Structure formats: structure tokens, C-alpha cells
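User: Teach me something about this protein's shape.
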Amino acid sequence: MKIAVIGASGFVGENIVNVALSRGHEVIGIFRRNKIKDQNNLKLHKLTIFDEEIFENTIKDADVIISAYNPGYYHVAQAQRFVDGYDVMFKIAKKLNKHIIAVIGSTTLIQYDGELVKNGLVYPKPWIAALAGTDMVYDKYKNEHSIKISFISPAAEVFDGDLTKEFSYGKDHLLYDKLERSRISVQDLAYAIVLEAENPKYINSRFTIAYQK
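Assistant: First, the predicted structure itself:
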């Protein structure tokens, strides 16, 4: 399978690239700034998705698109830039009839008390602000069925850890472990995303993953 990864040099994106390569896929890695290391079966492209013709030509032969897009935490209009970026990606994915997996935040998930994560009292406010754009994207496209979109909202905390493959799946509720933490390693997150690319189960819906032991 040929997988296009947008945001290939980011924290999540680079791990998606590595997992996809480890599972024998070809990867088209799209990045804006910091190049990642060259590897077999990896073709890297430094470009902006807002140059739509170049972007479309770069991903047209991919079987699936994975977006770990982030316009940068210090972008002057970060939230709107998220929306603008996904408007482009979803338009091209629809034109090419491609399945696209979009990594968004956990702030639109529902907590155990019934509140949305972003409206609760325990989630750090700077994180909520940083994910406002992904919330806008999800709200805009969650009922869009003319595009093959799988949304993934990870656990509240994504950290650099180990690949355990011992996580649980959910849909719209934040998942917790026995210590009431909502956590997932970026390696397990990347693994789950690549599994969705290989065997899609959540097209036109959203899923979440976290540890529950």
C-alpha cells in the first residue's frame, strides 16, 4: 500500500511514517520545515498543501492519506489555519476519491461526567486553545459523508513511550485507565492510525484510543 502522510516531520507524523514503513508500506512524506531522515520506501516532499496543484500531484497515486497536519502553535491565526488546511485536504481527497484519516484533538470527546473535555475543569487551558482549530474542523465535517474521512481523537495525553498494542478503542467518550488517566504513547497512536489505513473500520465516523489497564 502507498500511504501519504501530511505533517511527516511532526511528533505524530514521523511516528506514523516509521510504523507504516515497518509494516512494508511505501510512504509519501509531506513536510514544511524540518526534514526527517531518508529511509527505504520513503519519498519526502517539502511543500505547502496550499499550493493545491503540486499537492494533488504529489498524493494522487497514494492509496490512503493520513493527516497529522498542524499549522504551527505560534501561527497568528492558528485555529482558522487548521480549517483552511483541512478544507484543501478534504477537497483534494474528494476529487481523487481517497480515504483520508485526520488526527484531531481529544477536546470534543465526552468526559465521564458528561461534559465535553474542552468544557471541563481538568484539561489544561493552553492545550484547549491549541486544539481549537481541530474542534472547528471536526464540527464542520463530522456529518460530511461525501468524503471518506476517518477522524481519530487520541487520549488526552500523548507521550513518547513504547509500542504496546495494548490499548482500547472508543468512539466519542474519553477513555481512562484504572488511575483515571487518559493516556496513549505516540507509538501506539501511530500504530492504530496505520491499522485504520490498512483495514478501515471508522470511515465517516470518529474513534479514540487509550490505555485502560
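Now, about its shape. The two ends are 33 Å apart (CA to CA). DSSP finds six helices and ten strands in the chain. If you'd like, I can walk through any region in more detail.
User: That's plenty for now, thanks!
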